[in-house]
Specification:
Rossmann fold, 12% strand, alpha/beta, 13 strands, 15 helices, eight-stranded mixed sheet
C-alpha cells in the first residue's frame, strides 16, 4: 500500500464540507449490537445512512419495523424504517454510493485463541471492489494495534487495484479507527453519550472521521494515530478482564474460609478513592472481554514479548465454568445426589442481565459441562426463547417456564444470569437446591439455609 499523502487535498476538503453540511452518505457494515445503534445515532444527527449486512433477516426485520435486538426497542427501528434518509440492504455492490464506510463486523478467536480477522478482510475486499476517490473508511471492530493500517487498508487497496483503480491513501481515500464502546442494556449511557475515540492513518483522516462522529455523538476525542485508538480499546477491556479475574480468584480463596466475596467487594467499595468494584461470576461473556485480551497477547508474541499477567487472568476467567460445575456437584453430593441423571435448570442464557445477547455466554459452557457429566439440563431465559446456532455452540434447546410446579421437577437450580424478570420469591420458595453465581438471592439467605450455595 502506498504511503499516505502528507498534506490535505481538494478531495479531503470536499469530503469534509459534505460531512459538515450533512450531505455525506454513510454506509454502516454490520447491523448488530454495534452497527445498528451507530447507524441510528448518525441518522439522528442528520446524515443519510445505508445499513449493510450479510444476513437478509436484518434488513427484512427493519423494513417490517421489528427490532431483532430487544434491548434497543422498536422505536429505534420504526424511526429508521420511516425515514427517507435510511435504508438497509444486503447489496454490497452499493458501497460505492457511500462517502463514509464504517465497518462493525465480528472479530472472534480461532480454535487456538488466535485472532480471526477474516470478517474484516472479507469486508475490506468488498469495499475495495467499489472504492472510489473521496471515500473515508473507518474500522470499529475491536482488534490488535496495527490492524487498520497493516491489514484492513492494504486489503481494500488490493481489491481496488484488481479493479484497475489507482488510488492513494491520504490523497484520494482516507482511513481511521474508532473503537466501539457499546454496553448492551446499560441505562446510564447510550451511543450518543459515550465519548468516541478517533484515530486516523494520517491527520486528514482523523479530521474527517471526527467530523463524521460529531454529527451523532456528543463528545469526540481525537488521538494521534489509529494504533493509539486500537490499543486504548484493548486496554479498556483487558483492564476489566484482569480485575474480574482477580475477584474470581478471590472468590475461590474465600469460599473455604466461609467469607462472602460479594459482601467483601461491597465493603471495599465504600472507599471513595483508589478502588473500583468488580464482581465475580460464572465466567466471562459478551463479545469483548472474553476475546480482546487474547488479541493483545497474540500481537505481543509477534514482537517477542510475553503477557504473563494477561494470560493468567485469561486462564482464571476461562476456568470459572468448571469451578461452578464443581460447586454444583459438591452441593448435590452434600444432599445425597450425584450429578449423573440429576435434573438441573440453568437460569439465564444471556451473558448479562435483562438483555438477549448470548455472545460468548458462559451459560453455554455450563450446559455442555453438565451434560458431559450426565446431568439432564434445561434452561430458562425470558429474553431468549430458544438457542440459535453460534460459532461454538448449537444446543437446539428452548426456554422452559419458571413456575412453582416446574421448579419442583429439578434437583438443582443454577443461577447464571440474574434477569429482573425472574420471580426470585418463587425461585427461593420452590427450588430444592440452588447454586447462585450472581448473588441474586441475597435477601433469601436466611430462608434458604443449606439449600443455597454461592459459587
Amino acid at each position: 500500500m502506498t504511503q499516505a499523502a502528507s498534506a490535505p487535498t481538494s478531495v479531503h476538503a470536499d469530503l469534509l464540507a459534505r460531512i459538515q453540511q450533512g450531505h455525506a452518505r454513510v454506509g454502516v457494515i454490520g447491523l448488530g449490537y454495534v452497527g445498528l445503534p451507530l447507524a441510528h445515532a448518525l441518522h439522528n444527527g442528520g446524515l443519510p445512512v445505508i445499513g449493510f449486512d450479510i444476513d437478509p433477516a436484518k434488513p427484512k426485520a427493519i423494513k417490517e419495523g421489528r427490532n431483532y435486538l430487544q434491548h434497543l426497542g422498536d422505536d429505534m427501528i420504526t424511526s429508521l424504517r420511516d425515514s427517507k434518509r435510511f435504508e438497509a440492504t444486503t447489496d454490497f455492490g452499493r458501497l460505492g454510493e457511500c462517502d463514509v464506510i464504517i465497518v462493525a463486523v465480528p472479530t472472534p478467536l480461532g480454535r487456538h485463541q488466535e485472532p480471526d480477522i477474516s470478517y474484516i478482510l472479507a469486508t475490506a475486499d468488498a469495499i475495495g471492489k467499489t472504492l472510489r476517490s473521496g471515500q473515508l473508511v473507518i474500522l470499529e471492530s475491536t482488534t490488535y494495534p496495527g490492524t487498520t493500517r497493516d491489514d484492513m487498508m492494504p486489503a481494500v487497496f488490493k481489491a481496488a487495484g484488481e479493479k484497475g483503480m489507482n488510488l492513494k491513501l491520504g490523497r484520494d481515500v482516507f482511513g481511521a479507527f474508532s473503537p466501539e464502546r457499546e454496553d448492551p442494556g446499560r441505562k446510564s449511557h447510550n451511543t450518543r453519550t459515550i465519548p468516541k475515540l478517533v484515530g486516523g492513518l494520517d491527520d486528514a483522516s482523523t479530521e474527517l472521521a471526527a467530523a463524521v462522529y460529531r454529527k451523532g455523538i456528543s463528545e469526540v476525542v481525537p488521538v494521534s494515530t489509529a494504533e493509539v485508538a486500537e490499543a486504548a480499546k484493548i486496554l479498556e477491556n483487558t483492564f476489566r478482564a484482569v480485575n474480574i479475574a482477580l475477584v474470581n480468584e478471590l472468590k475461590a480463596i474465600l469460599e473455604p474460609l466461609k467469607i462472602d466475596v460479594w459482601e467483601v467487594v461491597r465493603a471495599a467499595a465504600t472507599k471513595p478513592f483508589g478502588y473500583m468494584p468488580f464482581f465475580p461470576g460464572p465466567g466471562l461473556g459478551g463479545h469483548c472481554i472474553p476475546i480482546d485480551p487474547f488479541y493483545l497477547t497474540w500481537k505481543a508474541k509477534e514482537h517477542g514479548r510475553g503477557t504473563r499477567f494477561i494470560e493468567l487472568a485469561g486462564e482464571i476467567n476461562t476456568s470459572m465454568p468448571h469451578y461452578v460445575v464443581d460447586r454444583v456437584a459438591e452441593h448435590l453430593n452434600n444432599h445425597g445426589k450425584p450429578v449423573k441423571d440429576s435434573k438441573i435448570l440453568i437460569l439465564g442464557l444471556a451473558y448479562k442481565a435483562d438483555i438477549d445477547d448470548v455472545r460468548e455466554s458462559p451459560s453455554f459452557e455450563l450446559i455442555y459441562l453438565l451434560l458431559d457429566r450426565g446431568a439432564k439440563v434445561d434452561y430458562s431465559d425470558p429474553h431468549c426463547a430458544q438457542t440459535k446456532a453460534g460459532r461454538a455452540f448449537d444446543l437446539h434447546m428452548k426456554s422452559v417456564p419458571v413456575t412453582p410446579e416446574s421448579l419442583k421437577q429439578y434437583d438443582l437450580v443454577l443461577v447464571s444470569t440474574a434477569h429482573a424478570a425472574f420471580d426470585w420469591n418463587v425461585i427461593a420458595k420452590h427450588s430444592k437446591l440452588i447454586v447462585d453465581t450472581r448473588d441474586a438471592l441475597r435477601k433469601f439467605h436466611g430462608e434458604l439455609g443449606n439449600r443455597l450455595k454461592l459459587a
